Amino acid sequence: MANCEHYRTLLSGLLDEELTAEETVEINTHLIRCASCRADYEELRKTESKLSAIPFTEVTDAAARSFWRLPYSRALRNAALVMIVGGYLALLAVAFFSFLAGDEDLFAKVVAAAIVIGVLLLLGMFVIERIVTYRVDPYKEIER
Description:
mainly alpha, 3 domains
């Protein structure tokens, strides 16, 4: 049928019982008349029943908090942050000193200095914003 595409979009809604009463009557009437859509609906029902049979246990908040508070987890996180920040700073230092020692023109040095100053200004604004926000944060007493 030409309307089958319209009804196929409603099949999952029918399966999940998310349709209005009018849409449910409309699609059920169509399923009685259309064998192709009825076969698609039955296939969706089989798939849904197989998926619902799979056990799924969600991690509780307490388990997630206990994982993040484990000593090795905290140590790994801190070590990763130190390595990333330290590596970035070392890379910047090497680039800065090789740039100063090189024979590049003044324009390139001014552009590089503008970029570095811009990044530092953004970082400073971010830190100031976080401090101001923390002072007026009504939820700062809540453990996260």
